[in-house]
TrEMBL record, chain A:
It comes from Kitasatospora setae (strain ATCC 33774 / DSM 43861 / JCM 3304 / KCC A-0304 / NBRC 14216 / KM-6054). One of its GO terms (molecular function) is peptide transmembrane transporter activity. It is found in: Cell envelope. This is Putative peptide ABC transporter substrate-binding protein. Its main location: other.
């Protein structure tokens, strides 16, 4: 029974079943160039079929990529970020950053109005940021993105200052995401309890208004005719081309593809690997794909717990898995294997890691011998002092089959058995999983984390990102240098310096064998050839502002 | 039952007349007489269902706040405590249970932890499309089953085995797969029906057929058996001896006898369908209680789970009341006990 659970969080990364190799599909990126969609035309309705349904529609609360992607149409941000990681004005026309990176001053546009007519101003920024960190909001992610936020000061109606306790270089990137988008202060005051429900309670400044939401069926958005404050990263200004934008929830992949090819929806998320060829062969359709930025799908090795508290054992595991072969055969050669904990499309990616830690079974055997795991039991597993070399790697039942990760895990199990390591994979629900994994009682944790910002390395590797405090550092391996470098990278906006620091972080994490990078997930979206101007942003989220549809 | 069957008198039309005229009266009388007992029973069922659901959810291992938040773990401990306190998870389980019962007694189903919406509204909103789907599927199944059974009961073995075969196929076809096939043919290729949603008749056809076919298979088998048992009884010979045709015999006489087990089965199937629509609703992208309760169980959204459980229990109570009442109409002797 494959029952899609609405709302796996960001760790689970949207259910992208597979993707093409970068080389095979670079032409499809930025579908707006497609010849048959022609010049932009205004009007019409576009229907977008997605695979899951947001649990909460409130981007200030939710951790879900889907919430951020869909609500991008409704909520604008202070700044926008282009594909190169450069920041551009949006609701803020310009900004200054204090030398210590502890305070950011934004100069705001004065012509922006929320859908309810309320003007956007400094007080609105303060109301929103204060709302995100308020305990009652119960923010699961946005508050985390605000980091060491200490408060917002309204300097004048068009100027606002955000203060932090710690240097916060990643703040600008966070401020460019939907998670730190702006609600009308009136909506915050009047319907705070309804923001997560979707529909008309969600009042923003974006190019679309959220008109209605019918759970299990669809969400409807309508053009905001007053919109005139698109960021320079958009391809046009003024109102959106589409009159209406409808999201349909179709959990079954073959139904999504069928609905797309029969023209009942114009865009479909998460095309499954078995349908890739069909979609590509159909002249009425096209395929959009892009590597996800941020954390790859990695195995994080728990260095606080025997037997992985021994670096040699960790290294043996890292080099004893045939990542190349496993990823290629299990995932139809559709995902590129990873060499670094972050993907190649993330700023600061350390290309020099590629090929630096190849599969080497004999090295693994040598390392395990050195570590004292020299005995063998009846099943062929290594032992030391009569104890078997066993690793516990829990799987979350709700998402185990995503991107064939369960089968990939079996391949890894088989590889490690060859060097005498037993891997146990208990299937757990969220409760059991969280207790084991974030309680530090699991040996291996697998997860991916999409964000267009190398600061995800802080989240994975800095000891302050302690799972007991709401962090996700599942390595449980405090390392002074990793702490120092990930902190230092937060304290500079110098791209060169940040890249240098993050390169050192990536290399050290691999050298410490605290991570086994596996593959880079790709967003894979099918679209009708009659749709133009559709492309992914740097977070691999679709924006429908520049999108049009020809008959 | 076979032994005490009242032999129809001469001129069966007149013999049936009184019982037909009696039907609404006996139905009403039966219902009224049983009302206090039924209400007490309904209350006990609802109370039991709520308690069982509450208890079952307590048995799921792990911290309820962690379950509610999902596996992302980016929520600060302060916020977690805030959630724990607001939802009363810091209270002893028994206190939570009492609080919950108190709320229920006041007619308040509470608010969904996940969706920030009142449970009653949420369930009501999702129940409509599900009832629509189940209702039309059951009607369709009854129609198909009746036609199939009436047309073939007591007929040649060839015809019988042919219909038996389709019924077996229908019963054993997974509805998930059947839905996909129907969608591929009638929506993706022929484009007769929309793929998904719950607007209007067009979007109801394919999911209703998907649910109805396996149901029709089961019902047809039961009904045919009933019909053939009735046809084997002495009264059938009497009717035939009076020169009545086979169809008249089956429709006017045998059907009534065979209908009693079918009504029982239909009632039971309707009740279980209410929660069994999850897969069909997922395939067709329809709203419904199935998906609602599944999501709620996964995230331990207690008020929503109990809300759906209560509504389902209520549905069962209503259905079984209707079934009992129908017995007395179909076979008045049952009402005189």
């Amino acid at each position: 029974m494959r029952i899609p659970r609405p709302g796996p969080a960001r760790v689970l990364v949207p259910a992208v079943a597979a993707a093409l190799l970068l080389t095979g599909c670079s032409g499809a990126k930025g579908g707006g160039t497609s010849a048959d969609a022609g010049k932009p035309v205004a009007g019409g309705t576009l229907t977008y079929a997605v695979d899951t349904e947001p649990v909460s529609w409130d981007p200030h609360v939710s951790t879900q990529d889907l919430t951020a992607e869909l609500q991008r149409q409704v909520f604008d941000s202070l700044v926008s970020e282009d594909a190169d990681g450069k920041f551009h004005p949006w609701l803020a026309t310009s900004w200054e950053v204090a030398p210590d990176l502890k305070s950011f001053t934004f100069h705001l546009r004065t012509d922006v109005k929320f859908h309810d007519g309320t003007p956007f101003d400094a007080a609105a920024v303060k109301a929103n940021f204060d709302h995100i960190v308020a305990k009652d909001t119960k923010s699961q992610y946005a508050a985390n993105l605000l980091g060491s936020y200490t408060g917002t000061t309204v300097v004048d109606p068009a100027t606002v200052r955000i203060d932090f306790a710690q240097p916060s270089a990643p703040f600008l990137q966070a401020a460019s995401t939907t998670y730190l988008g702006f609600y009308s202060p009136k909506a915050l005051a009047d319907s705070a309890a309804k923001l997560g429900q979707g529909g008309t309670a969600d009042v923003g400044t974006g190019p679309f208004k959220f008109v209605s939401y019918s759970k299990g069926q669809e969400a409807v958005f309508e053009k905001n005719p007053a919109y005139n404050w698109a960021p320079p990263t958009a391809k046009h200004n003024g109102p959106a081309y589409l009159d209406k934008f409808v999201v349909r929830f179709l959990p079954d992949a073959s139904v999504r593809v069928g609905a797309l090819s029969s023209g009942q929806v114009q865009v479909a998320k998460a095309v499954p690997p078995q349908s890739v060829a069909t979609v590509k062969a159909d002249s009425k359709l096209k395929l959009l794909t892009q590597a996800q930025p941020g954390g790859n799908y990695n195995l994080w090795l728990n260095g606080s717990l025997a037997p992985l508290d021994d670096q040699k054992v960790r290294q043996a595991v890292q080099r004893g898995i045939d990542v190349d072969l496993d990823v290629k055969s299990v995932q139809f050669g559709q995902f590129p294997r990873a060499w670094s904990p972050i993907s190649a499309t993330t700023p600061g990616y350390a290309k020099e890691l590629e090929g630096s830690w190849p599969f080497d079974q004999s090295l693994s055997n040598k390392l395990l011998d050195e570590a004292g795991w020299t005995g063998r039991d009846g099943d062929g597993y290594r032992t030391k002092d009569g104890k078997r070399l066993t690793l516990v790697w829990p799987q979350l039942t709700a998402t185990a089959t995503q991107q064939s990760r369960d089968i990939l895990g079996q391949a890894f199990q088989a590889d490690l058995k060859k060097i005498g390591v037993e891997v146990q994979r208990p299937a757990l629900d969220v409760g059991g999983y969280s207790t084991l994994v974030y309680g530090g009682k699991a040996n291996i944790v697998d997860l991916a984390w999409a964000r267009f910002e190398p600061d995800v390395l802080w989240l994975f590797l800095n000891s302050a990102s302690d799972p007991a405090k709401g962090g996700i550092n599942a390595t449980f391996l405090p390392d002074a240098q990793l702490d120092e470098w990930t902190n230092a990278a937060r304290a500079t906006l110098d791209a060169g310096k940040r890249a240098e620091l993050y390169a050192k972080v990536q290399k050290r994490a691999v050298d410490l064998a605290t991570v086994v990078p596996v593959y880079t997930p790709h967003a894979l979206t099918g679209s009708s050839a009659k749709v133009g101007g559709l492309s992914f942003d740097s977070d691999t989220w679709l924006s429908f502002y520049d999108t049009w549809r020809t008959a | 039952m076979t032994a005490v069957h009242p032999a129809p008198g001469p001129g069966s039309a007149t013999a049936q007349q009184p019982s037909r005229g009696r039907a609404p009266a006996s139905l009403l009388r039966g219902l009224l007489r049983a009302l206090p007992r039924r209400l007490a029973g309904a209350f006990a069922v609802l109370f039991g269902a709520a308690t069982l659901a509450f208890g079952a959810l307590q048995l799921i291992p792990g911290d309820p706040v962690a379950v509610l938040l999902g596996p992302a773990n980016t929520t600060t401990p302060e916020v977690r405590e805030q959630i724990r306190h607001q939802l009363g998870f810091d209270q002893p389980v028994f206190t939570q249970y009492l609080h919950f019962l108190g709320q229920l007694l006041r007619g308040d189903l509470g608010q969904s932890y996940q969706l920030q919406r009142p449970v009653a509204g949420l369930v009501a909103e999702q129940l409509g499309p599900t009832l629509q789907l189940v209702g039309s599927a059951v009607l369709l199944a009854l129609l198909v089953a009746t036609v199939s059974a009436v047309a073939t009961a007591g007929r040649r073995p060839g015809l019988r085995s042919l219909t038996g075969a389709w019924e077996l196929v229908a019963v054993s076809t997974p509805s998930y797969w059947l839905g996909l096939v129907l969608l591929t043919v009638f929506s993706f290729h022929l484009r007769w029906f929309p793929v998904a949603g719950a607007d209007g008749f067009g979007s109801l056809v394919l999911p209703a057929v998907t649910l109805a076919l396996p149901l029709a298979g089961t019902l047809a088998q039961v009904l045919r058996e009933g019909l053939e048992a009735a046809l084997a009884q002495p009264f059938a010979v009497t009717v035939r001896a009076r020169g009545r045709g086979r169809t008249a015999l089956v429709v006017r006489h045998a059907l009534r006898h065979a209908a009693v087990p079918m009504v029982t089965l239909t009632g039971w199937l309707t009740g279980s369908l209410l929660g069994g629509t999850v897969l069909v609703e997922a395939v067709f992208g329809r709203p419904g209680v199935g998906a609602l309760v599944l999501g709620a169980v996964n995230s331990r959204d207690v008020p929503v789970v109990i809300g759906v459980v209560l509504f389902s229990a209520l549905a069962f109570v209503v259905i079984s009341a209707v079934v009992d009442a129908l017995y007395t109409v179909l076979d008045p002797r049952l009402g005189n006990r």
